[in-house]
User: What shape does this take?
Amino acid sequence: MRLYLFTLVLFLFSAGVYAQNRAVAVVYDNSGSMQQAGQCEGINYALQLMVGLLHPQDELSVFKMEPPVGTDINLNQKKSSIAAITQSYDCSARKTPFAALTTASNKLAASNKKFKWLIVLSDGDITDTNFEQAAGSNIRNFVETTGGRVIFLNVNTIQSKLDRYLDNSNTPNNTLRTQGNFDQIIKTMEEIAGNVMTLSKGGVKAQAQGTKITINTPVPLKKMIVLAQDARKNAELPNLIKANLNGTSLFIEEPYKAQKLKSTDYQMTGIVTHVKSGKGEGVIPKGELTLLFDKNVDVSKIKFLPEVAAKLDVQIKGSFKAETGNTYTVCDTVKNITIVAKLLDLNNKPLDEAVLKGSKVSFVDENTKKTIALRYNPSSADFSASIPLNSKRITVSASAEYQGYFNYQSSIFVVQKEFCPTPTAFIEASKKTLHAKVTDMQHAETITVIPKIKVGDLPPRAATPEELKDLYFEKLNDTNIGIDVTETDGK
Assistant: This one.
């Protein structure tokens, strides 16, 4: 018998900024190959945890790959949903069709939730013939039109058909892979957790004082999630019985239990408990948070996951020709854009300066995964950087982490270049020549010239104030006669 301490916190899908503003679709490979090293049982247990961790306002759907049918999970009835999951999602199919990915991405695209996650758990060995041609750019279009994210956990160590499809279609994604054994699956799922949840990986590190845990939170919280897990048979995990902030009692939701005992090889038990300011969706202020349990606490088996009452606000700035959804179009002459990020509380006020200074905020090129650190500006309490546009089309995002408390990832944006004709300037003059006596310059004639701009085949137009700043008059001949030039209303 093999016993494992299952430390998976993959499925706290705080997909970006607002926990109640996310939609998650999980597509899992239910073919027989997923039973070889306990992958299917791990997915089943993780789905139970996910239900316990998400908000009732979130949207969650789970898709088998064969048949490619999705099931909406009722997050308002978590206990019955967890019980139903325990008895389902076995892996015995003989095919691995692609259709579930398209169906799941379409469902996410139709959701009114701002932050969308498509999670694919498979060995990537799609069995459809010529599925690449049929799928086309469906998944890439989902990312580029909605800003959603794709996570592919490949339990195959070699390049799979799904890997090649994602590469050939230039679909931004985060692909992680394992060697297919149970230990590696757990480890890789923890890596996914660091990518997809708003929490800093592993949560807050705390020291136990018997049955008591004290955490000094420097940021306001939507809730504190306590995730206790043990792989021992008949494990008795501690239950949270009291919580307070600076001496004021907090509300403890009824805990949710995840358990998987289908086989003797893998035994896992988890308890998810939510601590909130009250029965509603209020905010827990920053301060000293005290948690009391019914028995001594082993912090190696409990994670304290604060869900911060804050948001990552990202703006792309530049000379844009057009803005459509998450896509920004610039002229092909543009060399740089600017990305600006702010970490705000739910009242749109910047977080404390100590938190901002301690945060790591970065620009991310979603295709190459290269990052550029954003510079903190104390006067404006934001982070920014100039980003070079070295290719015709890039997909970008921003991330922000404060160790132990949050790990935000923004939606994905597309910046693309289009050809723009070069503007040329000319003038319209009120007369062709000037007449003046050098002995009577006080009565010299005047001429009015109006700068005009011509762009491609478009009719000439007046110069904008910005363009006027770049225009100047050049004296074409060598003369000692002075010419005074004044500008009034663009003339």
User: Anything to note?
Assistant: Residues 208-308 form one domain. The CA atoms of residues 452 and 462 lie 5 Å apart. The longest strand covers residues 221-230. The first helix runs from residue 39 to 53.
